[in-house]
Description:
Strand order of the largest sheet: 1-4-3-2
Radius of gyration: 15 Å
Oligomer: single chain
Number of strands: 8
Largest sheet: 4 strands, mixed
Distance between the termini: 29 Å
Helix content: 25-40%
Amino acid sequence: xxxxxxxxxxxxxxxxxxxxxxxxxxxxxxxxxxxxxxxxxxxxxxxxxxxxxxxxxxxxxxxxxxxxxxxxxxxxxxxxxxxxxxxxxxxxxxxxxxxxxxxxxxxxxxxxxxxxxxxxxxxxxxxxxxxxxxxx
Length: 136
């Protein structure tokens, strides 16, 4: 079997703020931006890696989600426990400095973990946890 990861999804509750974070702060290119208002689906991805994308999507747009589920999703997003992603870079300190300078919420400064990686963590505007690992 030959499978690749093509797109991973993260929720957003403010598409404009998410677009600024992923495009302007992380430097991802915008691949598509469809919909309007808060009901926008934005696909972004790292430059030079056209086969890998992140879909920033309204979290409760599925018509099969109940109102109780919508409330639960909103509560989890507010706490920052709904979505997360792992990224990697060869220069963790430079990325950390740039993201911190953009006033993103710092969850963890660059740290050498006991399990052998060095990483840091932020929250994006929707509360998603963004962990960034140092490539070695």
